[in-house]
Amino acid sequence: MQDKIIIRGAREHNLKNVDLEIPRDQLIVMTGLSGSGKSSLAFDTIYADGQRRYMESLSSYARQFLGQMEKPDVDSIDGLSPAISIDQKTTSKNPRSTVGTVTEIYDYLRLLYARIGIPHCPVCGREIQQQTVDQIVDQVLKLPEGTRFQLLAPIVRGRKGEYAKELEGARRSGYVRVRVDGSMYELSEKIPMDKNKKHNIEIVVDRLVVKEGIRSRLTDSLETVVSLTEGLILIDVIGGEEKLYSLNYACPEHDISIGELTPRMFSFNNPFGACDTCGGLGAYRRIDPALVVPNRDLSIRQGAIKAMGWNSLDSGSISMMYYSAISKEYGISLDVPVKELTDKQLNLFLYGTGRHVLHLERTTAYGSGSYDAPFEGVIHNLERRYRESGSEASRESTEELMSEVSCPDCHGRRLKPESLAVTVGGINISQLCDYSVTQAIDFFKHLQLTDREQMIARLVIKEINSRLGFLSSVGLSYLTLSRAAGTLSGGESQRIRLATQIGSSLMGVLYILDEPSIGLHQRDNDKLIATLKRLRDLGNTVIVVEHDEDTMRAADYIVDIGPGAGVNGGQIVCAGTYQDIVACKNSVTGQYLSGAKRIPLPESRRPGNGKSLCFYGAAEHNLRDIDVEIPLGKFVCVTGVSGSGKSSLVNSIIYRHLAAKLNRAKLKPGAFRTCTGLEHLDKVINIDQSPIGRTPRSNPATYTGVFTDIRELFARTEDAKTRGYDAGRFSFNIKGGRCEACEGDGILKIEMHFLPDVYVPCEVCKGRRYNRETLEVHYKGKSIYDVLEMTVDEGVEFFEAIPKIARKLKTLQEVGLGYVKIGQPATTLSGGEAQRVKLSTELSKRPTGKTIYILDEPTTGLHTADVHKLIEVLSKLVDTGNTVLVIEHNLDVIKVADHIIDLGPEGGDGGGTLVAAGTPEEIAVHPESYTGRYLKPYLK
Fold first, then answer.
1. Which one, of 821, 820, 691, 825, lies nearest residue 745 by Cα?
2. What confidence score (pLDDT) does residue 127 get?
3. Residue 38 is assigned to a ligand binding site
4. Under CATH, to which class is 700-828 assigned?
5. Is position 33 annotated in a ligand binding site?
6. GO MF terms on file (predicted)?
């Protein structure tokens, strides 16, 4: 077998005709500046061609359903294995997906509970066992003597189809009647049944009377019935109630029977197991009163109720008609703060007056009138409109006022009571899924089973332990199996897929991973690296796009791409061992690894402005009622091992509360007691790595607002004035100046059916997006298209004489995006690039000194050189008096912070406490801080 992957002439995106040879069956790291071409080479070239070749091996019939992959722009790739991509965007956001279902551990748990589970009565909790015919007879004979009853034996329960065989069996048994869906029929009759409909069918035994000597006849009847039925027996006491007995499992005290234990009974995605009330979701989305009345310091007349259709406070509005009628009828003032109203009084506005009729009066410009009617309430009105509305915009507006509430029947456990009443090791399947991976491993380690149970469950438990071990090995020991897949970060999702791949034990596969170290504390990094090596040692080639120094040290081979980013990148700077990269003088990566370049420590820590933002009693998820102080006017880092509670504190509590109070966003914060210091802030800004736009029409120029200034500049040129063009003429989003053949896209999509869709430049505008007349307008010899094709660096020089434009472009340059084209489509920007576009937009605004910026792991996807620039940008925000709050694992960022809030000490149930708070120097000497232990060497 060929021992190398040989790439010739790779030109995808910014790659410049790259030739490269990569050793097979090795751990390879691809690194380089953000935007240098790492992902273009690893994912868009190597992985894309591996996938394309697999697809082409299938028949054309199969390909029409699976789709086609376009051939990457590369001359040839030899030595390519089947490729599997493990990126950060593949875990399901379906609310039914959990860590347990994604890893398939839950499938094995369902099998385990179906085979060795012990059923209990859902009402009294007593252990229940299968009943014998004699036990059922004993129960019937306890009825008072003389009681008349009939025996009903279900043949079919809730199944579709025709039941000729079952009914024929009933005829042969000598019973002459059958009950279908509650209606009684003689067997000689034609019994109406629809094969497409679910039916409940019982055969009916003759009426019996409880008296001496009935035992033998009843026993004979039951034994005959058992051979025809599902093992369920109904005793219908004439004139009374039905009593249910079971040859499977039943509680004699509460007439509850549990059928045969099957895996589907424990699935919340199957009607046999899912809670009937919530359908297995465990929660509802309901109108949240806290979002309808977000500020209880306001009165009703001041607009305390914030909901579409109920915001108008004019005297002639419908909302004020109802509010005034309630005020008059119940003597409630509309001018006192809502917090001074009793719950009963406020509920009249929110949930209505029931059947109580109000006298309603309304005066408008068209006249006045009055009538009597009850009031349904704001919340009931919103719920009704949400159900009935055909308008997507209206439904979206209402959804902003909704929150998830736990199902009142299953209390978030997703399953039916009968399923939750089955235990293994003393706990039900939902309780086991609420355990963290570490706790689950410990549970199975100490699980006591009988010899028979051990024989049945041995292989199942082996598979469960194996998968739990893989999750622990990639640093996810703090996750619970019930954790919704949609709440996982990109790094967590990727490591779950990595653990699943190890479990598959494939060999000869090419794995390509995108920064698996994201969101991982240094303490857990060694585990991840060991896992990557294990995947390699199985006989696979592992390519990792990564900036982490520890991963590079562990790699067998490193490919450094650069030397710059964007148009300045796309070349192989150096390829070889770790020592080769360190020795390469042209490698920016090597310069940081060798220490020739480094991120310096600040000369001093900022003192701040002496004010603080304090949150007391933070208790969301695993946070343990902690008090946190955030000094303002400083660069503040929240640190801790994965799962310690950082996101719960910063994203769920701090950001959501500040956004609701300062920005008037309709967000409900996580659980905490109280907050002080809000008066020192004017707004909160969350700068994440989400795209700046979902379509190619969005670009850095449109997002930062500089495109508006550029269009206005072109509108002021002599050419434009002569032709009567305004600024709108130079927009590719509206009719007038754009090319109508491609509607301003510059490209056309041609559907090829069996072949991949082909994108070709528009024949009319040749990809320039504008019509001929618009492109004839020039500023300093350049058309509007020429300007959009410039890099930011070129734009700064070109617009040097226009301060308004130059200033915004310079901020893009300052955040390290000088290589990006001014009109580069948003869809081609990486997460780190999108984040820096947002940062540049904030830098271009006039500082107030009272803003707090929140960033969640801003170093994701950034090279050390880019982290250096990021720190400089964040420092500029702080130097103008603002506060920057970041969640971070990167020690280069942590070491330059003014203040650190370290959570932990462990993840999951072992975290959620405040380990330490103070300067980096104070954290470094704290004996219980894992962060401090790894930070110490960086402070020398």
1. 825
2. 80
3. yes
4. mainly alpha
5. yes
6. ATP binding; ATP hydrolysis activity; DNA binding; excinuclease ABC activity; zinc ion binding
Report strand pairing: 541-545 vs 27-32. Answer: parallel
Q: Lowest mean pLDDT of 51-65, 538-552, 849-863, 888-902, name the range.
A: 51-65
**Is 646 annotated in some ligand binding site?**
yes
Q: Compute the C-alpha angle 367/371/375, nearest 5°.
A: 120
Q: Is 641 annotated as a binding residue?
A: yes
Phi-psi region of 766 (alpha: psi -120 to 50; beta: other; left: phi over 0): left
What is the average pLDDT across 553-575?
A: 93
Please indicate if the annotation marks 640 as binding a ligand: yes
**Given this chain, do its domains 4-91+488-594 and 612-689+869-939 carry the same CATH topology?**
yes
Closest CA to 119 of 128, 108, 131: 128
For the residues 300-321, what does the mean pLDDT come to? 86
The pLDDT tens digits for 431-484 are: 999 999 999 999 999 999 999 999 999 999 999 999 999 898 888 888 999 998
Query: What is the CATH code of the structural domain delimited by 4-91+488-594?
Result: 3.40.50.300
Chosen CATH of 612-689+869-939 out of 1.10.1740.10, 3.30.70.1290, 1.20.5.110, 3.40.50.300? 3.40.50.300
Backbone angles phi, psi at 114, to 5 degrees: -70, -25
CA separation (Å) from 150 to 42, 210, 540, 581, 765?
A: 73, 11, 68, 87, 85
Whether 34 has a binding-site annotation, put simply, is: yes
User: Is the dihedral angle over the CA atoms 38, 39, 45, 47 positive or is it negative?
Assistant: positive
Question: Known binder of ligand: residue 724?
Answer: no
* 35 annotated as ligand-binding: yes
Segment 175-225, tens digit of pLDDT: 667 888 878 888 777 777 888 888 888 878 777 787 767 777 777 777 777
Are 556 and 4 a contacting pair, CB within 8 Å? no
Does the 118-258 domain belong in CATH 3.30.190.20? yes
391 is in an annotated binding site: no
205 is in an annotated binding site: no
Q: What is the DSSP letter of 284?
A: E
Task: Write down the domain spans for the chain.
Answer: 4-91+488-594, 118-258, 284-406, 612-689+869-939, 700-828
475 has binding-site annotation: no
Calculate the alpha carbon distances from 51 to 46, 85, 214 in Å.
Answer: 9, 9, 73
Q: Give alpha helix (H) positions in 474-598.
A: 490-504, 522-537, 549-554, 578-583, 588-594
User: What topology does CATH give the domain 284-406?
Assistant: Helicase, Ruva Protein; domain 3 (1.10.8)
**What is the pTM for the complete model shown?**
0.77
